[in-house]
Amino acid sequence: MMSQPPNSHHEEAGGQEGRLRPRPLHRPSVDPAQAATFGRPRGVEGSFDPPAQGREHGGGHGNGNGNGNGAGHQLVSAPPPPESLVEAFRRPPGADGVVLQRPDDDPGTGSRADGEPEAPLWSSSGDPWRDPGSGAVLGGPAVPAADGADERAERPRGPLLSLPEVLFGRRVKPTALALLGVVALLVGAAGGFVGWGLANAGNSLTGELNIAEAQAGKERPAGSIADIARRVSPAVVSIEVKSGQSGGVGSGVVIDPEGYVVTNHHVVSQAARDDAAGITAVFIDGTRAEARIVGTDPKTDLAVLKVNVSNPVAIEVGRSADLAPGDAVVAVGSPFGLENTVTEGIVSALNRPVTAPGENGEPPITYDAIQTDAAINPGNSGGALVDSTGALVGINSLIRTVGTGGEGGSIGLGFAIPVDQVVRISEALIADGEVKHADMGVNAASVAANTSEGAQVRNVVTDGPADKAGITEGDVITMVGDRQVRNAAELTVAVREHEVGEVVPVRIVREGRPFTVDVTLGSD
């Protein structure tokens, strides 16, 4: 008995009872709007567009049974391509070979001009989905393979060459061998360089550190505090005074290449009274040199020493008259024996009369000071006060403090002797060993404490300059020359601004009546 396909069935004469019939085809209604959007174009009834030849000849479309429907429609041909595209993509004149377009005498009819049917434009190995009515095809290779040749067959390999044959068998050109040697050398050199670099980089992994010397991490331009200190410090020395079991420490400034050092009188006063006392100047490089006193001026607290050293660094001397309140200044000295200590501040005031008691019965110290807030402490005495250019403008001398017994520190009130006065007195001490100051021949006191009403005369030296000018006890002096006098200290410094023998107008208030007298100044 022959087996039947699973989906086939036979109708018998009498039918078969109980056999199921095919389910009727369900055709749902179609929305006209969707049919207009997604339906087939007009004139297209099948799944694919009919062949072009049927449309162009006006024939009917073939149905599923091969019968024409007799209702053919005219195919609208596309417009001819632009001339530029035709010229760009057409075959060059005289070209032979396989064409990608049907000949001009066969406009898509599927037959040649002589009536013979044309060979199919594709084979079973070609693209089965290609439109047979297409005007362009993919041709074969430009150069056909030889008959019987297997394109996939491997080419025969020649015999392998040994190294002697390559080098000595004349099988390779000498130029190629030389080039090969150069390449080998380059590769070897590159490998050696890479190995050297890796070996040096590996030192950090093995704990071997090569630390290079670091450069300066901060720029120090000219005029900075560091630059000023570098230039000034070699000219500032520490003064050590030793007398028996006692001694003291101060500062000094080299003002002349011959070895002259200026300092305060109270720094070396102990040595001035005791011939057995020794004075030592210590330079920034540690050099120690014995110093001797050239001369002192207790009234202005100045002294000049002489040290025997070769080529000492002398400080540049400026002008204190050019200063103004607010100018930057730097103090260099040895506070509490700490050599070459640098502090910075400003000029707080100029022409500030200050007075300090003398030591061991000596006359009081009075001078016109530069007031500064640069930190000055015991040991800074005799040190340098320089301006923003590093030039000497004063010799540090006194401080105002709130402590008792001279043990207090700096409270921002320091006083320095102006360098213009220092130069004048130092020249006199070097030349003569002493200095003379102008004097009026009176003793005076402030009119009242903490006031600026003038200096009241307490007594007058007989036959002195004031006595000869008619000044009497009780007169209040308010001006000397062109400088106002507000207290007793300012009277002293105002008189010392002038030379001995100079005639100076002095303004006096007597019993409420002001008048002026001329005084010929004498010497103290």
TrEMBL record:
Entry's transmembrane regions: 177-199
GO terms, biological process: proteolysis
Residues covered by the PDZ domain: 429-512
A GO molecular-function annotation: serine-type endopeptidase activity
Low complexity: bias regions: 132-147
Pfam families linked to this entry: PDZ_2, Trypsin_2
Family the entry assigns: Belongs to the peptidase S1C family.
Protein's name in the database: S1-C subfamily serine protease
Organism: Prauserella shujinwangii
